[in-house]
Amino acid sequence: MLRTPALVAIAIGALLLTPVPASAAPTAEPPQGMVDAMERDLGISQDQAIKRLANEAHGNATAPDLAKQLGDSYAGAWYEGPEGTFVVGTVKSSDSRAIRRAGAQARVVARSLAQLNGAKEGLDKAARPSSSVHSWGVSPQDNAIVVAASDASAAQAWIASAGVDPASVKIVASAEQPKPLADIRGGDAYYIPAAGYRCSVGFAARRNSDNALGFTTAGHCGDVGQATNGANQQAQGTFRVSSFPGDDYAWVETNSSWTAPGVVNGYSAGILPVRGQTVTQPQGSICRSGSTTQWHCGTVTSLGQTVNYPEGTVSGLTRTTVCAEGGDSGGAFITNDQAQGMTSGGSGNCTSGGTTYFQPLAEILNRGYTLVLAGGGPNPPTGCAAYNEKFTASISSGQNQYHPNNSYYYSSASGTHAGCLDGPAGVDFDLYLQKWNGSSWATVATSSGSGPDESTTYNGTSGYYRYRVHAYSGSGSYTIGLNRP
C-alpha cells in the first residue's frame, strides 16, 4: 500500500440551463481560485463555471426532495453539459411535469434507482471478482450498473455468477489499478510516526457523546490507537475510529493544542469555508486539494461505487475524474462550501490524469459525529425562539429522536399544538406530531420538506402527544420548540 502525502477535495454543485429561482444561487460569489481551477481542469469558461456552481447548488438541494416525491419511480439525478443541466430520471412519463416544475429536465428510463441499487447489491454479495474487475456502481446517467474491468470476459462471467440481469449492466474498458493513496484545515498534511508515512486531514468533526474535537480521514491511513503529528510535526492526536477495508473512514481525536475553524485549505483557491454537507449529484463538478498535488477539479462520475483494492473491497465510494497521486488519501472533497468526503484511492496521476474515489462523509458522521462548520460550529441552531418550550439534541442520519426529552406530554384541554424544528444547514430533518390512540402512536401532523427547518400546527383534543424528529439525510445538532394548548 502506497503511503505518502494526502489530499483534499472541493466538490462544486451543478444546475440547469433553464432559469432558476433566485434562492437557488449561492449566497456568495464563489472563490476565484475555485473558478480558475474549474476553467483549467474542466475546459470551460469562467462564465460557465459560475453558472455551473449555481445550477449545481439548486440541483443538489432539490434532488432529495424529488426522490421523496417520486418514490419508487425515481431513477436518480445527474448533470449534463458545461453549465450543468440538472436532469432527473423516472420510469413513469407522468412524473415529467413534477420534475420540470422543480427546475429539472425529465428523462424517462427503463429502470428505477431502487432496481439498480438491488442489482448492485447482488454484485456486492457475489464472490469477490478477479483483479481485472476494478470497480462497479450505479450510474443514473447510464441507467445501468457500470463495471470497470480490463478483462470484459472475466467481468461477464462474474456478473453471470452473481445472477444479475446482464441487461442492467454496462461493462467499460478500464486500465485502472486502484489502490489507497495514503502516505486542522482540510487538506493539510499529518503524520503517523509509528508507520512512517503521512496522509491528509479531511474535515473537523466533534464526537457527539462528549463534544471531543478531532478530524475525519481515510481508514487505511492508520489503526485505532496510533498517534499522529500535525503538518508542523507537533503532537496532534490519536486514531479513535478506523475502518478499512469494507469502508475507508477514520476519526482522529486531537489534543488541546488544536482548534478547528471549519475550513479547507484550497491552496491556489484560498482558504475555503465549510458550511454544510449537501451531496453533489453525478456529473456535478468537484475539486480537491491535498498536500501532494494541491488543488485540482473534475466531475463526479457516480455514487455508491464498490472498489476492488488489493487489500479488499470497499463499498459506498464516490467515483470522480479528479486526479490524485500517492499520499493524497484522507483529504477533503467539498462542493462549493458543502463537505462531501475523504479521498480513498484511485489510479493515474496529475500529469496524465486519472480516477479518484472518495469515502462519503456521512458514513462516519452517522456513527455519532458532527461536522464543524465555519465560524466555530457546530452549535445547536437557535431558531424557534418564539416557542414556549425549547430543547436541543443531536441526531445521526436515519435516526429518530422523541420530544420532550425522549418522552411525551399530556394535554388536558383541546387546542392548538405547534411545533418548530431548526436544524443545521445541508441536512434534511423532518418533524412529526404523534398522538396516543390507546394502542399505538399515530401521526397527526407532518412537516417533511427537503431542508433542515420544519413546523407543524394541529388542533387536537385532550390526550398524550409527542414529537418525532427524523434525520432523513445528514447529521447534526438541532433545536425543537413546542407550544401546548
UniProtKB/TrEMBL annotation:
Keywords: Disulfide bond, Hydrolase, Protease, Serine protease, Signal, Zymogen. Its EC number is 3.4.21.-. CDD domains: alphaLP-like. GO terms for molecular function: serine-type endopeptidase activity. Transmembrane segments: none annotated. Residues 1-24 form the signal peptide. It comes from the Bacteria. One of its GO terms (biological process) is proteolysis. Residues 111-165 form the Peptidase S1A alpha-lytic prodomain domain. Belongs to the peptidase S1 family. This is Streptogrisin C. It comes from Nonomuraea soli.
